[in-house]
Amino acid sequence: MAAALSPDQNTQRQPGATLSWNDGFLLGFAPMDETHHAFVDCVAALQQCDEASLPETLAAFENHAVAHFEQEEQWMQDTSFPAAQCHADEHAAVLRSVREVAQMLRDGAACQVARELAEALAGWFPGHADYMDAALSHWMSKRTHGGMPVVLRRAMPGIATAASDSSLQAGTTR
Ligand SMILES: [Fe+2]
Ligand SMILES: [Fe+2]
């Protein structure tokens, strides 16, 4: 599996737990946040679906990921975002892994390979969102609104956030 899918970047989820959306994922650029919510749902489906539906669930994830990554890469291209290539390279590595696993399933591999991919995706996403997507979100928000996004996040028990002592936190992100 590609090195881009390191399972150790997730600080908010126990290994093996189903990925679920929480406000900690909000980056402040609404179109990206909506896509990321859909990404989380697609990964959760891949973690939880029955074995018979794994191939179609993986195909649905791939369709989502292609559109998701193309949209971000289009934003970067349209706005001359710096360091777009390393972001796009990480997307490409993920898609390579997804396609490798889909081929392995077609070749008769055990379903476990798709479950391992789902776990790797669940581990990969928070780190990617935190670093690469957050920078793009800020960039797009600045261009759209002329400033950094204001992100409202509900406090979540057991989940560390920048200012976890308030029931609703408002502030600029990173
Ligand atoms: Fe993204
Ligand atoms: Fe991205």
Automatic annotation (TrEMBL):
Residues 32-134 form the Hemerythrin-like domain. Gene3D superfamilies: Hemerythrin-like. GO terms for molecular function: metal ion binding; oxygen carrier activity. PROSITE patterns: HEMERYTHRINS (PS00550). Pfam families: Hemerythrin. PANTHER family: BACTERIOHEMERYTHRIN. Belongs to the hemerythrin family. This is Hemerythrin. It comes from Paraburkholderia polaris. The lineage of its organism: Bacteria, Pseudomonadati, Pseudomonadota, Betaproteobacteria, Burkholderiales.
